[in-house]
Each structure stands twice: as C-alpha cells, then as structure tokens.
From TrEMBL:
Short name of any one Pfam family annotated for the protein: Sugar_tr
Molecular functions (GO terms): transmembrane transporter activity
High-level lineage: Eukaryota, Metazoa, Ecdysozoa, Arthropoda, Hexapoda
Domain of life: Eukaryota
Transmembrane keyword on record: yes
Ranges where the Major facilitator superfamily (MFS) profile domain occurs: 1-297
The protein's name in its UniProt record: Major facilitator superfamily (MFS) profile domain-containing protein
InterPro entries: MFS_dom, MFS_sugar_transport-like, MFS_trans_sf, MFS_Trehalose_Transporter
Cellular compartments per GO CC: membrane
Protein species of origin: Acanthoscelides obtectus (Bean weevil)
Cellular localisation: Membrane
Membrane-topology annotation of the record: Multi-pass membrane protein
Key words, A-Z: Membrane, Transmembrane, Transmembrane helix
Residue ranges of the TM segments: 12-39, 103-125, 137-161, 168-191, 211-237, 249-269, 275-293
C-alpha cells in the first residue's frame, strides 16, 4: 500500500515541482516516517522474548485498541516462540521441511509478483501510452491515474480478505494480469510487426489503455499487499523476522533485475514477447495459488505452518472450497 501511494506521490509532485523541490519532497517523507517510529510501541514479540510481558500487553492494546482482550494473542505468541528450530543459527532452520516449503512458497510468490510485470507496467506506463499515440499531457495524466487506481484498489483486500480468503484474491489478481498482459502483447504485436495501420491503431488506442487500467486494479486487489504478507503469516514468531528479511532481500533483488533488463529484453526480442512472458508467469501464479498456497484466513501462523509441514509434499490437498461470505 505504501508503495502504491508512493508512486502517486512521486508522480504528482514530479509533474508539479522543479527537480530540486521534488528531491526535497521525496527526502522529507522517509524522514517523517522514521521520526514517527520513535513514538511507536515496541513489537509484542520482541517484548515477550525480552521477558517483558506487561510491556507486550500494553503494545498489543496500543495496536489493537484499549478494549481488546490480549489474552488469546499473548498465548499464541508465547506458543509460537516456544518452537525451537536450529536456535539462533539461520541456516539450521532449513533442516526443517516446513521452513523450506514455507520459504519456497513465499519467495516464489514474491518473485512471480515481479515476473508478471507489476513494477514495470507502472514504471513504463509513459512508454506504453506514448506508443498509443498520445501526447505529453495525456502521458502524465495516465501515469498519475494509474498510480491512483492501484492505490485505491489496495484498499479492497482490507474489506474482502477475511470474507473471501487470500487465495481467492490472489487468483483474481493473477487472472487480471494474465488478461491485461495478453491484450498488451497483442497490441505490441500489431504495433511492432506493423500488422495494422497507424490509423487503425489510433482508433483502438483505448484498448491498451483499458488493459493498463485493469492491470493496475488487479495488482492492487490481488498481488501487492497479499504477496508481501505471505512470509509474515506462514512462519511462527520465533523465526519469522529472519525469514521475512531474507524473503524481502530476494523480493527487491528480483525487482531490480527485472526492471534493469526490461528495455534490453524489449529491444532484443520485442515488447510483444515480453508481455506474453508476463501471461505465462501469471498462469504459473494461478497454478501456484491453487495447488500450493495455503489459505491463511482466520488461522494462526502456527496452524498454517503445521499444515505446510504435515503435507506429504509441497502441494496441498486440493479441494473445491466455498468462498467465505458468498455461500
């Protein structure tokens, strides 16, 4: 969500401000964000690990509300912290098959988030809109609009995730990126291979723009927030921080590699092939969610971790499940 609003913030101010003021405006945000952290309560998990149970209870009440009964959550945190897998040795954790499977699931989902073109479609929106024949003002407006659609769509999971489940939203997200990428790939086939005349392409320029808008919406609804939460939800508190940090390292490394190779790949093989690759990885994402990803809604991290660990293999026992709230 912060990433989505960060794109909107940077795009709007980048249009309105000169470069020096724009840089200052970008610097001030992390400064304010960091300053606010000094006034935040400490992590309840850290407080319990340090033997400060009362401080953990106060932190939970500050996070959940003063009337929130913290007893059950305190017991859950203590139970998760009681698990000992390899002690303080990070690599010893991977001797447990539950950790290996959970790590593979979380990292694969994070990498797929970039391999379906999530970051690239927003970063290179201006190039796509220019290819449709629009001028500079329309390009800037499209970039800002795309960021706003994605940011607003990121609120949808907040209201639906416990009702329909994470797997359902992930499937919706990957399905939308599949359809949108196919449309954009077909557009670039017609553009780069000169299969259609320029006049005809201009006539149907609304088609790739609609696909872009749909892509932004699908990413905000199904991929942006939920993929990032996976590593937090499927690992117990005792080693969650270590694996989450490593997962994020893989996440942003994948983002860097995919972003840096976009232009070179497009020039070498054509942008149409690139978007068809996004289609392929979107399909892989759908299969991953259906046959591997555990449903995390209304379950504790320990329950999710035990379910992954007890599988005969990494694939889940698939069965058709009714969507919560829609039965």
């Amino acid at each position: 969500m912060f990433v989505s609003f960060g794109f909107v913030y940077a795009n709007v101010l980048g249009w309105l401000l000169p470069i020096k003021l724009f840089i200052f405006a970008c610097i001030i945000v992390p400064v304010i964000f960091t300053t606010m952290f000094f006034f935040q309560p400490k992590s309840p998990v850290y407080s319990i690990q340090s033997g400060k149970a009362m401080e953990a209870m106060e932190a939970l009440k500050a996070l959940r509300g003063s009337k929130y009964d913290v007893t059950a959550e305190m017991k859950t945190i203590k139970l998760e912290l009681s698990i000992a897998l390899g002690g303080s040795n990070f690599f010893q954790l991977f001797k447990d098959r539950g950790v290996i499977r959970g790590f593979i699931i979380s990292v694969t989902l994070l990498i797929l988030k970039h391999l379906v073109g999530s970051t690239l479609v927003l970063i290179f929106t201006s190039e796509i809109v220019k290819a449709c024949g629009f001028g500079d003002i329309a390009v800037k407006s499209a970039v800002i609009t795309g960021g706003m659609i994605q940011a607003l769509a990121s609120f949808v999971p907040l209201y639906l995730v416990d009702r329909v489940g994470r797997r359902f939203l992930l499937i919706i997200g990957f399905s939308i990126t599949l359809i949108s990428s196919a449309v954009l790939g077909a557009f670039y086939v017609s553009l780069d291979r000169k299969l259609l005349s320029p006049n005809l392409l201009n006539t149907f320029s609304f088609v790739p723009l609609s696909a872009l808008a749909l892509y932004w919406f699908g990413y905000g609804v199904g991929l942006g927030n939920i993929a990032a939460l996976t590593a937090v939800e499927i690992f117990p508190a005792c080693f969650r921080a270590k694996l989450k940090c490593f997962s994020e390292f893989v996440n942003w490394s994948a983002s860097f590699v995919v972003t840096m190779t976009y232009l070179q790949f497009g020039e070498a093989y054509g942008h149409d092939l690139l978007y068809f690759f996004y289609c392929f990885f979107s399909m892989i994402g759908i299969l991953l969610v259906i046959y591997v990803y555990p449903e995390a809604s209304r379950k504790t991290s320990l329950e999710i971790f035990d379910e992954i660990r007890k599988r005969k293999h990494i694939f889940r026992r698939y069965r058709a499940e009714p969507i919560r709230g829609l039965r």
